[in-house]
Amino acid sequence: MNIKEKISKVIKHQTVDSIPMMYRGLPDTDKRLNKYFHLDEPEKDWKKLLKKLGADLMSTGYTLSKYTVYFPEYIGPYKNLYNDHCFFNSWGLDSETANTRFGEYVHYACNSPLRDASISEIINYKGPEIDHFNFNNFNLDVSLQEENFFCTGTLDYIFMIAMWLRGEDQFLLDLAANKKLAQVLIDKIGEFAFEINKEIYKKHGNKLDMFGLWDDVADQKSLLMRPETWRQLFKKWYKKIIETVKKYDQIVLFHCCGNCNAIIPDFIEIGVDILDPIQTSALDMDFYNLKKKYGNNITFHGGIDVQKLLPFGTVSQIKDEVKKIKKLFETNDGIILGPSHEIPNDVPIENILAIYK
After folding, report:
1. Which of 62, 65, 94, 283 could form a disulfide with 110 if both were Cys (CB 3.0 to 4.6 A apart)?
2. DSSP letter at 342?
3. pTM, two decimal places
4. Three-state SS for 296?
5. Per-residue pLDDT, 96
6. In whole angstroms, what is the distance from residue 7 CA to residue 9 CA?
7. Alpha-carbon gap, residue 357 to 351, rounded angstroms
8. What is d(CA 223, CA 230) in angstroms, rounded to the nearest whole number?
9. Cα maximum dimension of the chain
10. How is residue 224 annotated by DSSP?
């Protein structure tokens, strides 16, 4: 049984011989591990790195295969100020980079172009259009597909794009006190998210395995809005997008950091198969309760804390945590275990190895 077959069984909550283990790290962490194992650059030797670690998947925040992901090429009018595969720049959002002790950090929204906009100005704002993208650049190595997922999903981060266009503080105020304006902006973004991903599947749906959505609508304590607000303004767009990609028999992964417990039933209802990242350090996101409440209906992806445990814990503490989670999921269904986020560069290598050994 290869990893794709195993993941398929896990998502269907069928018993497998062992829990699938995934790795994800920031680029500097990947390079540090490859150097430790005397490997070439990660882009070339990522499969060898997985074997050295004892991991099954090279994941990211919203895909199951970091190096087999398809995005169309942006050829629109806005300048790409950074190598921005998420195409935030297509909405007129500027980006910049900074080097920190944890590695390179990217700030994707420096300008908030719609902060002071009226409803009519939002309606007339020049956002991305379908003809701003080249969809004929599908060049994934088909020889990799037998054991690796071909993934996609782009510009479907509706909340985050709206928040960055308006500014974080202003958009949260909109959601509380100016829902009419918020609805206009959300619908403008949601409509394009639907159209671009529909076009991707129209062109390449028969070649793809997995669709990823990414929208961080929560912090460590709760959602950033009332659950009713999320359901009223956002849910219909995710549902519409997922219904389209499900026609192509896709695995759907939804990435939401923090405590999203209140809307997990909604994720299940609209067809999400995998929930990421399972930030167990957040309130109400411990595995015991999640498995008890939702474990028969959704698969969890992540779960090993990168905030405190991996950077500051001991090897034995990390091994104990992995054993505890594996015991909880002793039938090996419903979980793809690994770091809760991409591992920062300050995590000791021995602590990373402890996840898998």
Report:
1. 94
2. P
3. 0.95
4. coil
5. 81
6. 5
7. 10
8. 9
9. 58
10. S
Which helix (H) or strand (E) covers residue 300, if one does?
strand 299-304
Q: Convert the pLDDT of each residue in 91-145 to its tens digit.
A: 999 888 877 776 677 777 789 999 999 999 999 999 999 999 999 999 999 999 9
Q: Report strand pairing: 151-152 vs 57-58.
A: unpaired
The amino acid at 98: A
Q: What span, in angstroms and rounded, lies between the C-alpha atoms of 11 and 18?
A: 14
Tokens 């074997």 sit at which residue? 51
Concatenate the DSSP letters of all residues of 65-124 into one string: -TTSB--PEE-SSS---S--TT-GGGGT---EEEEETTEEEEE--SS-TTTT--HHHHHH
Tokens of 289: 């309760």
pLDDT per residue as tens digits for the range 245-284: 999 999 999 999 999 999 999 999 999 999 999 999 999 9
Q: Which CATH class is domain 3-356?
A: alpha beta
Which pair of tokens denotes residue 39? 């490997």
> Vertex 202, ends 9 and 74: CA angle to 5°?
105
Residue 167's alpha-carbon distances to 87, 102, 150, 219, in angstroms, are: 18, 26, 34, 17
SS3 content of the chain, % helix, strand, coil (to 5): 45, 15, 40
Give, for 167, the enclosing helix (H) or strand (E): none
**CA gap 178, 171 in Å, rounded:** 9
Dihedral over alpha carbons 244, 246, 250, 256 (to 10 degrees): 80
For residue 210 the two structure tokens come to: 């997995």
